[in-house]
């Protein structure tokens, strides 16, 4: 399968905002020469992953039961755990499908409680908008979490700790991470199934950008763009290490994602106990070859399982549900290989 | 009893004189600076003076980067004196990184403002804050012209501002209320046409984004600074109701802006 993403290299500073600048970029080949770029004592070789693809035709009805079925299918264990759900709410526009749907988030709160979680919170640090109160109110998230009596934590304003990185794709060496993320027993990445005009796709790994606070990294999180979006994805995922992923593919976004694309009615949810496996399956469902999305294939070396032969798959057969999402447009900088 | 933004902000005061982003959180630069301005708080100014770097900035390290985006706000909040002059000197001596225009993100390459961190690109909010400080305290600074040029270049099509991208990959990105409000507070008196388009945009958009305290507060500050009294009255009513109903989620920056916008005379008001 050939897609324009396959020609993307790891680009550093390429989309740092205000301009695309390929010159000075550190390409994937350079990274390959310097392997391993992770602490081998911390990251053991990825083992078997558990993935489940379930159908869900809409956000109405028994979504809580579907989410519970998905979590049970991947063997999710939340007994006594403090669970943090990290949806994607980069900004809000009522005419598009930018965000993880609030009704799915509320249903997931309830499902984790049924799995015996001690607490479940919903947390996000929107990347484009500083006014989080406006984003969560207009998107319906505030009402949805209030309905299930779950707290919302603004990760842009939460207390922080500096954490040393255990991988070296960026030169950051450390990250400022919100303590609610660090202190959660279980972090669940809950992205929208979307294309992304710089990274190819934005799924459970890219969604972790929202764990980093804007007051440190800017709006948008420009320091991460200068360090390379894909490099940053890998380092952040290595620091946060989400336990589970739930991809909202009931309605996804194709074309010029993550903001300006068009809605796609996919009618699926992807569950995994491994964010790399979730993203590999998720991108396949979108019609893209995960091996040709550099950050996913690289993540498969140390963060999780990208090899479908090493995944135990339950629920629906992903191959029967695959759609061809329109790829995002490419700028003159990001076409360079 | 109705909730009151200055009182709610005051409840975030810590024993060290600074203000946190939430109840019980450690003191940080931005809520402390806003409290110094809104409450005319001596303790907050003391905290700021204590936390100013030797180079005059208010900054902290982010790996190899230095986030110095609060230096302009710090300069304003400190009040007249040596500390403010050092902060302004620092502000004047720094600019964001120059980047080339491309077909993906076309920009005016000559327009360079301020970024969130040294060595990164210009963005609307840090540039607007720098402009606000320089316009009020060093109006003849070259930085004023640079900031205005950057805001001209990053204006959304039709007026107003988002975080700082006008067009990306052929898509015109819409303005946001919060960033438009801050840009207009900074810009007052600098470019009447640009300001007029921004105010018209704000007038059209603020009710759409009125669920957020930070958006309403910066809108009110902008309308007051520009003397749009009728609009300001409507926004004030909406903001006071939102504060009463939600306490702005107890968030220090939103409360700081609310207290400042509702105060007798926000900095920059004519």
- Silhouette of chain B: globular
CATH architecture of chain A: 3-Layer(aba) Sandwich
Mean pLDDT of chain A: 89
Order of strands in the sheet with the most strands of chain B? 1-2
Q: Tell me the structural class of chain B.
A: mainly alpha
Helix proportion of chain A: 25-40%
Separation, N- and C-terminal Cα atoms of chain B: 33 Å
Q: Calculate the mean pLDDT score of chain B and round it.
A: 96
Write down the Rg of chain B.
18 Å
Mind summarizing the main beta sheet of chain B? Answer: 2 strands, antiparallel
- β-strand number of chain B: 6
Order of helices and strands of chain A: HEHEHEHHEEEHEEEHHHEEHHE
Overall CATH class of chain A: Alpha Beta
**Number of structurally distinct domains of chain A:** 1
Percentage of residues in DSSP E strands of chain B: 5-15%
Blueprint of the fold:
The complex is a heterodimer of chains A (337) and B (270).
Chain A: H1 28-33, E1 49-55, H2 63-73, E2 82-87, H3 102-114, E3 119-124, H4 132-138, H5 141-147, E4 152-154, E5 160-164, E6 174-178, H6 179-183, E7 186-190, E8 192-196, E9 200-202, H7 214-217, H8 222-227, H9 229-240, E10 244-254, E11 262-272, H10 275-285, H11 294-299, E12 311-315
Parallel strand pairs in A: 1-12, 2-3, 2-7, 3-4, 7-10, 8-10
Antiparallel strand pairs in A: 1-11, 5-6, 8-9, 10-11
Helix pairs in contact in A: 2-3, 3-5
Chain B: H1 5-10, E1 19-20, E2 27-28, H2 29-39, H3 42-51, E3 60-62, E4 65-67, H4 71-78, H5 82-93, H6 124-137, H7 142-153, E5 167-168, E6 171-172, H8 177-187, H9 192-205, H10 213-225, H11 229-246, H12 252-262
Antiparallel strand pairs in B: 1-2, 3-4, 5-6
Helix pairs in contact in B: 2-3, 2-4, 2-12, 4-5, 4-6, 6-7, 6-8, 8-9, 8-10, 10-11, 10-12
